[in-house]
Amino acid sequence: MSKQLILPGQTIGIIGGGQLGRMMAQAAKSMGFRIAVLDPTEDSPCGQVADYKIIAEYNDSIAVRKLAAISDVVTYEFENIDSERLKWLCEHAYVPQGSRVLELTQSRISEKRSIQEAGVEVAPYAVIESLEDLYREIEEIGYPSVLKTARGGYDGKGQLVIRSEKDLPDGAKLLQQGECVLEQWVDFEKEISVIIARNPDGEMSVFPVAENIHRDNILHQTIAPARISEAAKADAVEKAKKIAEYMQVVGVLAVEMFLTKEGDIFINELAPRPHNSGHYTIEACETSQFAQHIRAVCNWSLGSVDQLKPAVMVNILGEHQEKVVNNIKKYRSWNVHLYGKHEAKLKRKMGHITVLDESVEKVLSEMEESQIWEKMQEKIGGLQ
Ligand code: AMP
């Protein structure tokens, strides 16, 4: 694919108008670009900061044509784009990321195969197409394990933890949605992620390894740098580089990993875009993951990813927003980001807060003391 240098004043088209698109657009606008966004909603988080809005379904061919016509370069923040549309777009617009990486990561099956082909390990798994497959493969993979739909799952949706034989029949429901993968449960010590960027010239840069704490399968907190050994960090970076190089990624790739007590690393999943666990980079690093993504797709040299201070990022879900706003005056160190979403639904990502401090422990206890993120079970008696 031809490489182009995209310069300020030109227009970057973004498929998807959510918070990732918004933060990409904010970074790009501060660099002098114009932004066009394709999203089905009138007042999307990215639409609020874009110069041009195309309001239509992602797979609307007229809308995709419009985006191609208006944009000097097209990128995406939304992963479930129909691959035929994306292929068309690649032929009719400049899409330096191409369609291949997105296609491979749209299915957990091709994603895992690519990771293995890159020479990196994933947890033992099997492709499951029927209940018979499930009964057969569980013998090999063992309990506990987790059945996941190959496509379309996120934040723990489309997943079933199988603890014993009695859970196996429940697999039928997931299998109705299509092919699945059965993964061995990894008894991890930490979940970590590596955000890596690569430009069309093949230059790569890796952000500091982050440590992620999930609640109910949704990212809750990210701590960077991760509180793990230097050897584990180096190993994580090496693995992310191997994957990005093998897949010839352009732009930002997030690599989620499990780190075991023994120091083994298994890749959980990939996201070929900026990622929630990289939001800390906005304040903590010389270049944010969003600015780096823009630099990469525009074929600039990549910026420095040096971290200025340790950081803690915490997500603001629908149930936290009001309490955050009520406490906004109290905490001067909180860098509050809200995404401009109108409805604060339960578990919906509404924003995040990043705090920089030499003492991560101090920040964590301040967040706990604020009682904003107290567990929902205590509040609503396990109704979630
Ligand atoms: P995923 O959507 O695949 O990222 O899964 C959501 C969360 O479920 C992960 O962040 C882990 O906390 C947990 N999880 C998923 N798969 C596994 C696994 N094979 N072993 C242990 N925990 C898992």
UniProtKB/TrEMBL annotation:
PROSITE patterns: ATP_GRASP (PS50975). SUPFAM superfamilies: Glutathione synthetase ATP-binding domain-like (SSF56059), PreATP-grasp domain (SSF52440), Rudiment single hybrid motif (SSF51246). Pfam families: ATP-grasp, PurK_C, RS_preATP-grasp-like. The keyword Ligase applies. Its EC number is 6.3.4.18. Residues 112-298 form the ATP-grasp domain. It is an enzyme of class 6 (ligase). Pathway: Purine metabolism; IMP biosynthesis via de novo pathway; 5-amino-1-(5-phospho-D-ribosyl)imidazole-4-carboxylate from 5-amino-1-(5-phospho-D-ribosyl)imidazole (N5-CAIR route): step 1/2. Keywords: ATP-binding, Ligase, Nucleotide-binding, Purine biosynthesis. ATP binds at residues 108, 148, 153-159, 183-186, 191, 214, 268-269. It catalyses: 5-amino-1-(5-phospho-beta-D-ribosyl)imidazole + hydrogencarbonate + ATP = 5-carboxyamino-1-(5-phospho-D-ribosyl)imidazole + ADP + phosphate + 2 H(+). InterPro entries: ATP-grasp, ATP-grasp_carboxylate-amine, ATP_grasp_subdomain_1, PreATP-grasp_dom_sf, PurK, PurK_C, PurT/PurK_preATP-grasp, Rudment_hybrid_motif. Belongs to the PurK/PurT family. HAMAP family: PurK. NCBIfam families: PRK06019.1-1 (NF004675), PRK06019.1-2 (NF004676), PRK06019.1-5 (NF004679), purK (TIGR01161). Homodimer. Catalyzes the ATP-dependent conversion of 5-aminoimidazole ribonucleotide (AIR) and HCO(3)- to N5-carboxyaminoimidazole ribonucleotide (N5-CAIR). This is N5-carboxyaminoimidazole ribonucleotide synthase. The gene is purK.
